[in-house]
Amino acid sequence: MATANTVSALRAGANEAHVTINGIGERAGNTSLEEVVMVLNSLYKHKTKIDLKGLYTTSRLVSRLSGIPVAPNKAIVGGNAFTHEAGIHVHGLLANTATYEPITPELVGRERRIVLGKHAGKSSVVLALKELGIAASEKQIDDIVARMKELGDKGKRVTDADLQTIAETVLGIYQEAKVKLEELTVVAGNTVMPTASIRLKVNGDHVVEAGVGTGPVDAAINALKKAVSGVADIHLDEYHVDAITGGTDALVEVWVKLSKGGKTITARGARTDIIMASVEAVLEGINRLIQQENKSH
Questions:
Q1: Hey, what domains does the chain have and what are their CATH numbers?
Q2: Residue 36: closest CA among 79, 75, 82, 80
Q3: Which of 22, 102, 107, 244 is the most buried (most CB within 10 A)?
Q4: Is the predicted pLDDT of residue 118 greater than 90, yes or no?
Q5: Are 136 and 164 a contacting pair, CB within 8 Å?
């Protein structure tokens, strides 16, 4: 309603609009800058002096600095805004992107994401494989879809790394990891700052780094990011934890979304140790991002 009122006022002759990034403000917030700008740009063909490609990165920056997360279903900048899973949606996108996207994600500095799960169809898998630079025959694609749906039926989120692993298995492709974990030590307690030291093998060379954090997981991930900074300047965009089994020895599944140079990827790790599950997930994502980058060169 705030967006509609603001746009109506501007069209009626108002000279200024009070807007904020992500709609942040007191009480229920303010009108979202990104929504007003894109309505003016797309519906009324009115060009502003706003850098449209900077809308998403600015939104992420404000969210990080303010500590206020952006709702996944938020228009323009929300995580689900340009995300598609159902096969019929992806089939429509392949025919005409305007079917489900009134604006292109690139216009606002984003990229389209195809989420794979039990609702995803063959069109989704074909498009996702194309983005990963993987070519497969019709029979191989059918096999990949069947294996992917098995994961989805078990209630698991199918990550980009899962799809790539499944595809490589079906196609008989072996990809050696560029970054391998050799040793990880984490120290934490009520009187010490959580600290982690890590030793990796990166492109055949041994790399040792240390990091601190607000907790043992944060310290371990910070040490890992420092250790791979020479080959992969990655950003951890999202981090989720689920306990798959009960008890203090529960199997924990960690799901992460990483980005590097405009490319994003999702990966998972599952261990009874949340620290190792987290490092495993991030390492898997890093290796997949490096592989994608090498394919594009």
A1: 2-66 (no CATH), 83-171 (1.10.238), 179-296 (3.30.160.270)
A2: 75
A3: 22
A4: no
A5: no
Q: How much is the pLDDT for 198?
A: 96
Contacts of 236 (CB under 8 A, 6+ apart): 221, 225, 256, 257, 258, 282
CB contact at 8 A, 278 and 221: yes
Question: Is 244's pLDDT higher than 70?
Answer: no
Query: How many other CB atoms are found less than 10 A from the CB of residue 172?
Result: 7
Beta-carbon contacts of residue 291 (< 8 Å; ≥ 6 apart) = 164, 175, 178
Which of 130-144, 186-200, 226-240, 245-259 is most confident?
Answer: 186-200
**Predicted confidence (pLDDT) per residue in 50-97, tens digit:** 999 999 989 988 988 888 888 888 999 988 888 776 666 666 776 777
Residue 90: enclosing H or E segment and its boundaries? helix 87-95
Q: Summarize the confidence of residues 201-224 as an average pLDDT.
A: 94
Structure tokens at 60: 């992420």
Which residues, other chains included, contact 204 with Cβ-Cβ below 8 Å and sequence gap of 6+?
none
How far apart are alpha carbons 266 and 166 in whole angstroms? Answer: 14
CA atoms of 211 and 125, how far apart (whole Å): 38
Q: If you search the block for the tokens 């599944």, which residue do you land on?
A: 253
Burial 128-166 (b: 16+ CB within 10 A, else e): bbeebebebeeebbebbbebbbebbeeebbbbbbbbbbb
Tokens read off for 250: 């529960």
